[in-house]
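Morning - 2-acetamido-2-deoxy-beta-D-glucopyranose inputs below, output right after.
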Amino acid sequence: MGFTLRTLLLTASATRVFASCAHGTFLQPRAEEGGAVKVATFGYTGTIGPLNWAALEAPANSACATGTRQSPIDMVDSVFTILNGADVQLTVNDMPDGADFENLGTTVEVITQGGTLTVADKTFELQQFHFHLPSEHLDNGTSQAMEMHMVFQSAAQEIAVIGVYIGIADAAAAPAAAAPAAAGKRSTSRIARRQEATPPPPPAAVATRATTLLETIFSTVDQISVPGTKVKTPPLVMSEVVDLLKANAFQIYSGSLTTPPCSEGVNWHVSTARLAVAPATFVKARDVIGFNSRFPQNTPGQPNILMLSALGSAAAAVMAAAAPAAAPAA
Ligand SMILES: *[C@@H]1O[C@H](CO)[C@@H](O)[C@H](O)[C@H]1NC(C)=O
Ligand SMILES: [Zn+2]
C-alpha cells in the first residue's frame, strides 16, 4: 500500500522525462494487481529486448533507435575526459535503519535517503542506485561482472549518473582465509629448494576484497527474487564507497539512459574505482538479476547502430531479390 502510494506521489512530482525514465524505474507508474506490484514492461531478451525498445512505445522511446549519443559505450580513451574525484563534491547519507531494496523486474534497486553530487557548480540529488549484470559500459573493451548506477537529478531536471564497475573478489581476500598452505609442501622439488634459500617474493598483486556495502545489500537479494517484491536491508554505511569514489577519478561523457526511453543529455561519470563482491555473492545476485545489460552503443556522435543496421538489412534484401534464385543447398 505505502509503496504504491509513494510511487504515485513520486511519479506525479517528477518531470516527464524522469517519470517515464527507466533510470528512475521506481518512478514508473505501476498499478497493484492482485497484491503484486506491476513491474516494467520492457526487458532484455526477445521482442521486449533492447533491439526493439523503440517499437515498444512509439514515439516516446524513439531515441533508443535514432539517438546519436546513446549509452552504454565502450570506454576507450577517445570518448571521455577525466575528472578527478577530488574535484567533485559527493555526499551520500548513511541509512542506519536500512533501506528499501526492490526488484523492479528489470533491476534490483536501493531507494536512497539523501545525497548530492556537485560538479562545476551544478548540484544533483541522489534518487536511487541499482545494478546491471554484466556491466553495461565496457572498460576499454572489457566487460566487468556487474555495474552499479547511482542516479542523480538536478533542480533543473538534468540527470547525472555515477557508474561503478563491480568485480569478483578473490576468495583469498576473505578475512578468514588460511595462510598459503602450498609453500612448505613442495620442498622436494629442486625449484622449491632453491626458493627456500631466498626471501619469499612479494604477493603478485593486492588481493581484491569484497565491498562491505555490497555484501550487506546483497545479503538480502534472495528475499526479493520475485519481481515486484521489496525487502529492508540491514543498516548501510556509505562512506566506504564515497571515499573510494573521491580518491579515484571519473571518466565523463554525455550519453543517455541505458533503459527506455533512452533520453539523452545524461551526464555520465564512470569511476576508475572498482568495487567487488565475493564469488558466492555474485552467484546469489546473478540468480535474481539474471541478465540486464543493454548492448554497447555506437561512438557518441556517430549514427545509431540500429539505423545503420536497418540500412544494411534493406540493402541486403534488395540484393537478395535481384540475385538469381539460389541453387538447392548441397
Ligand atoms: C586500451 O586498450 C588498447 C588495446 O586494446 C591499449 O593500446 C590501450 O593502452 C588501452 N588503454 C588503457 C587506458 O588501458
Ligand atoms: Zn542503470
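Note: The pocket of 2-acetamido-2-deoxy-beta-D-glucopyranose (ligand 1) is lined by residues 77, 140-141 (CB under 6 Å).

O.
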